[in-house]
Amino acid sequence: MSSSFVSKRIFSVTILAMVAMQLSCVESVLSLNQTNEYLHHICLNRQGTYKSGGKYERDLNNLIPMISISVLGNVVVFSGDNAAYVKLQCRGDSSTSKCRTCLDTAFSEIRRRCPNNRGRIIWYDNCVLTILTFYTYAEIDYQNHFYISNAKDVSGDTKSFNEKTRALLHRLMEKASSKENVPSKKNYLYATGEESLGKMRLYGMVQCTQDLSIKNCSVCLNWILAKLPKCCNGKQGGRFLSTSCNFRYELYPFVKLTTI
Ligand SMILES: *[C@@H]1O[C@H](CO)[C@@H](O)[C@H](O)[C@H]1NC(C)=O
Ligand SMILES: *[C@@H]1O[C@H](CO)[C@@H](O)[C@H](O)[C@H]1NC(C)=O
User: Fold this and answer.
1) What is the mean pLDDT of the segment spanning 137-165?
2) How many angstroms is it from 219 CA to the middle of ligand 2?
3) CA-proximal residue: ligand 2, atom 2 (nearest)
4) pLDDT higher for 103 or 44?
5) What is the CATH number assigned to the segment(s) 147-250?
6) What is the mean pLDDT of the chain?
7) Structural domain boundaries in the chain
8) Is 180 exposed, middle or buried (0-12, 13-18, 19+ CB in 10 A)?
């Protein structure tokens, strides 16, 4: 952090660059279908706006490139009035460079999509970037969420497919929020897995942001898993995303599977 930047008085920024990175543990990446699609954004109009070309904008623009991707749960606090709280979560299988690229894309895109909004959120396949005017560390965000389902329906026994999907995601939830997890370890609040379904394979992933406690990760995942029937009934794939936790399942490999 440059000291000239830190010494600016009026502006205050807290960054939680929460990046769960899997350091090794990569299984087969054979037919992995990896993209970084834009998914959704929300402009939080109630949090007000800032002036173009003003100090808030300049400071935020200077700050984003300084977010340290390599430090897990990194928190940087600037003191002052005009606070911006920035939270970044990359998907658990993102490399440092992929996470950085996602952050840069997300920041430039959210400026275009929510010009001058102080509160704004944008989701991509590989990351979610949240910029707010207040501090939400360790809290579950129940307000900002959405789901996407695969357009294709499963053929055959829908009820059994739904049950297997629920069981896989539930198992991953328990893995991600297991008491044995500690913040510095890989797979903290993150889990991937697969299951065979006759001739097909089902792939799943769950993740919470790194500021949540293990307990709250499980609370968050329980909350979104309860949305499964609404979002994904009989669908070949689906995901539910908030700014605190998310899940996804598909019948094709969309994530690097970890081997524990
Ligand atoms: C990759 O994803 C696209 C879009 O979801 C799909 O049409 C395509 O078949 C996938 N490819 C593989 C190899 O799974
Ligand atoms: C758990 O989440 C609630 C609701 O967001 C929050 O008020 C509480 O402080 C969190 N607990 C811990 C231990 O982080």
Assistant:
1) 95
2) 10
3) 139
4) 44
5) 3.30.430.20
6) 83
7) 3-144, 147-250
8) exposed
